[in-house]
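> forwarded from #structure-qc
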């Protein structure tokens, strides 16, 4: 197939949507498909364009068989609701350079648009309508719903406008998919899509991310002793996680010199977290940058407990992608989730982690205390088994490819289908 992927994030970003879209593009290219990607400069989660891409304008590179068209765009030093809107619209405007050429070039067999940002679907809708091409919208994050729940926008008329734009896009998609059962329900409840919302979960490469013994972890490199008990958070440091609770917990455990809190990542909330650590004179919290993908297994093997935190208002509007790696590495995740959400149900049903109440310092402290006192070997074994049976990269992408191939013979929305989880 001749495939066009449109996404603001792409490889070589190490976390979030960009990593999954990058792996998707590379995998499809490896299967013999012609893959073209229109994307921005790598910037996430640091919110700073990566060094090797700074100062560049529009240019094309090849990444693992996929042709990648890069666009310059505005990346704010401080992320606010307003600067994020400007950031996202600047990408759409910048990408017009490529889209103008695409309208008069060889017809693509399918266009895959990755959301968020939700509104980048406007250009694919115009193209696919004019050229009579199937449009697949894959939702990694219900962005407007999240903004509403987190009260990022107070103007109700503006929110209404955003939902109308979202409805315009989703109504004109041949396929709409998302990453969790709860998000599938949320999309279905909008009553705007033309066919069943597909479940297309984020995956993990079980051969690359696997359990390692403690001696092969990064403990020695990080200056940790064999007696240290490590509580780790790794990933994007954003507002929707409520990460200030980690600092509250670290303050509680400050009297225990062998309990260390390691935070790996970058994002809009990092500076405020560092300020909290400084204000409380904590010496048991260490900040580190994200590690290269090839060191991920060693990084995950460093922790006794992994934190997967999110706010109540984010329930079923996003599914933390960091969980897939933790499970594949046979880690024990301490997860804050609300009963009835996909995240809660998966952890509870399969007993592959420990659950705590969201947005509660007391619950987090109790959860850490309990986890540090238990033999977690059975939880870790179940976590690895779950990842192998349900999140295996090859199986999920093969099913995705089958759905793509089916679109070649389907001029209208495809029949009901659900990808495995």
């Amino acid at each position: 197939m001749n495939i066009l992927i449109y996404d603001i994030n792409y490889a070589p970003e190490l976390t979030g949507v960009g990593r999954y879209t990058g792996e998707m593009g590379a995998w499809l290219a490896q299967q013999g498909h012609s893959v073209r990607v229109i994307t921005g400069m790598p910037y996430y989660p640091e919110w700073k364009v990566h060094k090797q891409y700074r100062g560049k304008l529009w240019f094309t590179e090849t990444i693992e068989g996929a042709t990648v068209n890069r666009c310059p765009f505005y990346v704010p030093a401080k992320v606010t609701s307003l600067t994020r809107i400007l950031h996202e619209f600047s990408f759409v405007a910048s990408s017009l350079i490529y889209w103008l050429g695409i309208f008069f070039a060889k017809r693509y067999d399918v266009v895959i648009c990755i959301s968020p940002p939700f509104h980048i679907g406007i250009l694919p809708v115009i193209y696919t309508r004019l050229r009579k091409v199937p449009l697949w919208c894959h939702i990694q994050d219900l962005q407007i719903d999240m903004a509403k729940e987190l009260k990022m926008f107070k103007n109700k008329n503006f929110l209404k406008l955003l939902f109308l734009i979202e409805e315009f896009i989703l109504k004109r998609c041949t396929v709409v998919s998302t990453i969790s059962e709860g998000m599938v329900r949320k999309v279905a409840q909008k009553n705007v899509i033309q066919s069943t919302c597909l479940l297309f979960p984020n995956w993990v490469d079980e051969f690359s991310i696997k359990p390692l013994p403690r001696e092969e972890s990064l403990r020695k490199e990080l200056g940790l002793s064999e007696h240290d008990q490590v509580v780790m958070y790794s990933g994007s440091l954003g507002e929707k996680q409520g990460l200030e609770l980690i600092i509250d917990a670290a303050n509680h455990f400050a009297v225990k010199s062998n309990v260390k809190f390691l935070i790996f990542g970058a994002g809009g909330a990092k500076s405020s977290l560092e300020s909290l650590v400084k204000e409380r004179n904590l010496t048991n919290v260490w900040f580190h940058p994200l590690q290269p993908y090839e060191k991920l297994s060693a990084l995950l093997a460093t922790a006794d407990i992994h934190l997967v935190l999110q706010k109540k208002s984010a329930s079923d509007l996003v599914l933390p992608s960091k969980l897939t790696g933790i499970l594949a590495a046979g880690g024990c995740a301490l997860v804050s989730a609300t009963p009835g959400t996909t995240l809660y149900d998966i952890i509870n049903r399969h007993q592959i982690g420990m659950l705590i109440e969201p947005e509660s310092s007391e619950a987090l402290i109790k959860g850490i205390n309990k986890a540090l006192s238990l033999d977690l070997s059975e939880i870790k074994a179940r976590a690895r088994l779950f990842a192998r049976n349900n999140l295996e990269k090859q199986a999920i992408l093969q099913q995705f490819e089958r759905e793509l191939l089916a679109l070649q013979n389907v001029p209208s929305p495809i029949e009901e289908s659900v990808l495995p989880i």
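QC bot note: The radius of gyration is 21 Å. The mean pLDDT is 92.
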